[in-house]
Design brief:
This protein is of the alpha/beta class. It has helices at 38-41, 65-68, 71-76, 87-113, 128-137, 220-233, 247-260, 274-285, 294-301, 310-317, 337-344, 363-368, 399-407, 423-437; strands at 2-5, 17-20, 26-29, 57-59, 83-86, 138-141, 147-148, 154-159, 167-173, 176-180, 203-207, 237-241, 269-271, 305-306, 323-327, 351-354, 373-376, 379-382, 386-389, 415-419, 442-443, 449-451. The strands form four sheets. It has a seven-stranded mixed beta sheet with strand order 6-5-4-3-2-1-22.
Length: 452
């Protein structure tokens, strides 16, 4: 049996893992986009090293584009195999994949209009139609139910926290249990349930995003409330680049509760992201997957102003503070938030609040690292606003939680591979597993192919 690391090795993006059994069955776990640094994004234009029509099944851990966003290209290029995901992930993909195709087309069109590319013409990686076709191919499956796959392989999806519908995948093939952690959530997230333990794994492929780092031991509501109060007192605007899936909803929930309790001023809160609006509706539909009751959820977000049209979005930029605007994308790589950053980043009274991991090469990472200017639409925009991070709200397990999740296994796996982390983070988790559990783990390398 072979395990091939086609992505998320040495980086936190582009998750793709291929298992090939001894009878030649090929199962692809995740099919993500590479994001961030240019040399990573360029990998999206390289075909995967096996013909798409030789893949027998695709399993998706969750809906984030670094786990699903290459699927439209793979389907367009000949994938015929079934694609499986949990019910919430299926629903989210119907929103996220077409939006990704639309943005691919928009980015190419913008580059052509403004001659911002060496290519003539610039082309999208895939189109919205490609993405809609791929999303329609996904088949929803329940958590904790054995899924039969070609070649006698079985799969099971288990809740991993992180975002709505996120799962670890337990694969049984050739008499062995191979576990793909997916992205593991925290144990005390405001909305998503804690990750479920895995009892047994012969082979463990585990994320390492926050290896070597600990989240602050503070209440995220308290931390968020303090930032809002301070910025509002100086008449400023809080711009929150937020992932449309999970983070935006958590921020809405916390801000709604803070405002209802009188712990922040009654300032307007805007959700300015069409995708986040659609995802918010899914949170009500899949209320059984939340940590809070449906009534608590509806009550908390009742007074959030949701903007729909481009005109409504532009009107936000014409307002005087104080107010909060939550807008995608979470790493400030695109979407409506970059227009808000152009307006509000240059002013000292405002705050840019990041509430999630910032990958290398993104505008978000640049601002967190203290960049004095950011490049938006060919212009250098000064960053004079206060830049803050809300690390206590991360949807990723930190170092201690990763060790806790792994330590629930009843015995050490025969093989442990660490992925989905920058090199230093992955190596620190490798050391942590050795020191805490006595495990020997290996940090996977891009395109590495191992025999199991």
């Amino acid at each position: 049996m072979y395990l091939w690391f086609l992505g998320a090795a040495g980086t936190v993006t582009g998750s793709r893992y291929l298992v090939e059994t001894d009878n030649g069955t090929r199962i692809l776990i995740d099919c993500g986009l590479f994001q961030g640094l240019k040399q990573l994004r360029e990998r999206n234009w390289q075909s995967i090293p096996v013909p798409p029509d030789t893949i027998d099944a695709v399993l998706l851990t969750h809906a984030h584009l670094d786990h699903t966003g290459y699927l439209p290209a793979l389907v367009r290029d000949g994938l015929r195999a079934p694609i499986y995901a949990t019910g919430p992930t299926f629903d989210l993909a119907q929103i996220m994949l077409p939006d990704s195709g639309y943005l691919q087309e928009e980015d190419a069109a913008f580059a052509n209009r403004h001659r911002l590319t060496r290519h003539d013409p610039a082309l999208p990686l895939y189109t919205r139609i490609d993405a809609e076709r791929a999303a329609a191919r996904i088949q929803p499956v329940a958590f904790e139910v054995d899924l039969p796959l070609p070649g006698g392989v079985r799969a099971r999806f288990r809740r991993s926290g992180h975002i709505l519908g996120a799962a670890s995948i337990l694969l049984h093939a050739d008499g062995r249990d191979i576990v793909f952690s997916g992205d593991i959530g925290t144990y005390d997230a405001p909305l998503t349930p804690a990750p479920r333990a895995i009892e047994h794994a012969d082979v463990l492929v585990m994320e390492s995003t926050y290896g070597g780092r600990s989240h602050p031991q503070v209440d995220p509501a308290d931390e968020l409330g303090g930032i809002v109060r301070t910025t509002a007192a100086r008449g400023g605007v809080i711009v929150v680049p937020a992932f449309a899936v999970g983070r935006a909803q958590t921020l809405m929930f916390l801000l709604g509760r803070l405002r209802a309790a009188g712990e922040i001023p009654p300032i307007p809160v805007f959700l300015d992201s069409p995708m986040a609006q659609d995802v918010t509706a899914l949170f009500a539909r899949h209320g059984q997957e939340l940590r809070v009751s449906p009534d608590e959820w509806r009550s908390a977000i009742a007074d959030i102003s949701i903007t729909n049209s481009v005109a409504d979005s532009k009107a936000i930029d014409a307002r005087n503070g104080p107010f909060v605007v939550i807008s995608a994308s979470g790493m400030a790589t695109g979407g409506r938030v970059i227009h808000h950053l152009k307006v509000f980043a240059p002013h000292h009274r405002n705050t840019i609040l990041f509430a999630g991991f910032q990958a290398a090469g993104t505008r978000g990472q640049a601002m967190v690292d203290g960049a004095e200017t950011i490049r938006i639409h060919g212009l250098d925009v000064p960053v004079r606003a206060e830049v803050r991070t809300l690390d206590s709200l991360s949807a990723h397990a930190d170092h201690g939680d990763l060790i806790r999740w792994a330590g629930a296994l009843q015995r050490p796996p025969r093989h442990v591979f660490l992925t989905h982390g920058e090199p230093i983070a992955a190596d620190l988790l490798r050391r942590g597993l050795k020191d805490s559990l006595g495990w020997e783990a290996h940090v996977a390398e891009h395109l590495q192919k191992v025999t199991l």
